[in-house]
Amino acid sequence: MDSISLVIPALNEEERIVKNLLEICLFLDSINNLEYEIIVVDDGSTDSTSREVSELGITHQNIKLLSLNRNFGKEAAMHAGLVNSTKFDAVIVMDSDLQHPPSFIPEMIDRWRQGFKVINAVKSDRGNEGVSKSVLVKFYYWLFRSFTPLDVELDSDFKLLDQVVVRSYTELIEHNKFFRGLVRWMDYSSATIYFKVPEVNDKLQSSWKNANLLRYGMSSITSFSSLPLQIITFLGLTTMVISLIIGGLAIYDKLAGNAVDGFTTVILLILMIGSILMISVGLIGVYIGKIYDEIKRRPSYLIDYQKSNIFK
């Protein structure tokens, strides 16, 4: 008997969480020689998500609730679920809204039983995603490829991880974890399957906003690369060269007795240097902020033990 845990982060999913969990169970029940447990990590929902999962767990005892005492973000929710899944032979991480089709779970388990430590489910397309978000996502992946040695384009959080990988991941001591990037970085033997993102109606669209995407992108890139800091040095050298050229021309015109207007050139130069300095200070501030978060060593999540039934 193989034992599998499904880690499913959820945030304000009261309308469909029960229906979706039951659908996931149908596919898991069809797999031979498999014991499973579903751990729903309620990431501080403000609706009745946790109550719906708890009530479902009364009749389906392999469905457990791990409730965080506030919203810590999806990365923290996945980490909390993985920490509480190290006793299983493998763990599958997937979304609660079925944007990660549960019909692929049997294939993922088959590939894992063949000996692969990581099964990556990769999107063959991005579904009915909005134009603005699609442009931002493509730009983010371009930046990530440019600044880091990793390529996670079209990758998703829909993965199967062997117990060895789960233990390695949970032992990483950094505070702000980027799940997809770290799994790639660990570089265990892996297989890839492709899935198409199902169409969803407008009412059930993801709450992942463009502002969240920008913050997420900045955090993930700075977690894996210090190249942006090196770009500051390049910009400084470029500005210095331009300044030397403009200064040399000004001195030449002065010695030649030509009238030097100067004001436009000086203003443009000051604006350019000022802009580069402000961007540089802001970028350094991002890295200092990440260092500050790390050295505080605060936990990435806190558990609401009164709501959680996983420990009972």
Short description:
The chain is α/β, with parallel strands linked by helices and 312 residues long. The chain has helices at residues 17-29, 49-59, 74-83, 105-113, 131-147, 163-171, 179-186, 210-224, 227-255, 263-296, and strands at 2-10, 34-42, 63-67, 90-93, 118-123, 159-162, 190-195.
Give the termini separation.
23 Å
CATH fold label of the largest domain? Spore Coat Polysaccharide Biosynthesis Protein SpsA, Chain A
Number of domains: 2
H/E series, N to C?
EHEHEHEHEHEHHEHHH
Q: Name the CATH class of the largest domain.
A: Alpha Beta
Poorly predicted regions are 201-208
Q: Provide the CATH architecture of the largest domain.
A: Alpha-Beta Complex
The largest β sheet comes out as: 7 strands, mixed
Overall spatial form: elongated
Question: What class, by secondary structure content?
Answer: alpha/beta
Q: Could you tell me the mean pLDDT?
A: 83
CATH superfamily of the largest domain: Spore Coat Polysaccharide Biosynthesis Protein SpsA, Chain A
Number of helices: 10
Strand tally, please? 7
What level of helicity do the residues show?
40-55%
- Kindly estimate the percentage of residues that lie in beta strands according to DSSP: 5-15%
Q: Give the neighbour order of strands across the main sheet.
A: 3-2-1-4-6-5-7
Which value, in Å, is the CA radius of gyration? 25 Å
